[in-house]
Amino acid sequence: MKSIVFILLLMLAASGCVTKSRAQREAQAAFQAGQNAALKRQLAAQGNGVTVVGPVQNPQVPWVVGLTLTQAIATANYLGADTPKEIIITRQGENATIDPKVLINGAVVPLEQGDVIELR
Fold it and tell me: What is the CATH number of the domain that holds 76?
């Protein structure tokens, strides 16, 4: 009887090791798949629209021809209690700072696909 229990314990221990290593491989594969999916989303967002950084509800604004800064901020749904102190547009690594008062006075600032807008 002791030998049967010993054999069953050995079988259980051996099957646990296989299950553990398999679980580890599956976890690594799932992690890698998640990383790849996140990278694809980032790349898609960079080329397909405008990104708004700051207190907004929708940081990814779809690109349309003729999109302006005011339209992008409105589409992103700005949630700040006060008007931003400054707005920074990053385009192809170059930054441009815009005073929000310019927008309030009716200035039209055109955007390009892939622009990043930071509201401070």
Answer: 3.10.560.10
**DSSP letter string, the chain:** -HHHHHHHHHHHHHHHHHHHHHHHHHHHHHHHHHHHHHHHHHHHHHHHEEEEESSBS--EEE--TT-BHHHHHHHHTB--SS--S-EEEEETTEEEEE-HHHHHTT---B--TT-EEEE-
Q: What is the mean pLDDT of residues 92-96?
A: 94
pLDDT at 78 exceeding the cut of 60: yes
Q: How many domains does the chain have?
A: 1
**Beta-bridge mates of residue 78:** 56
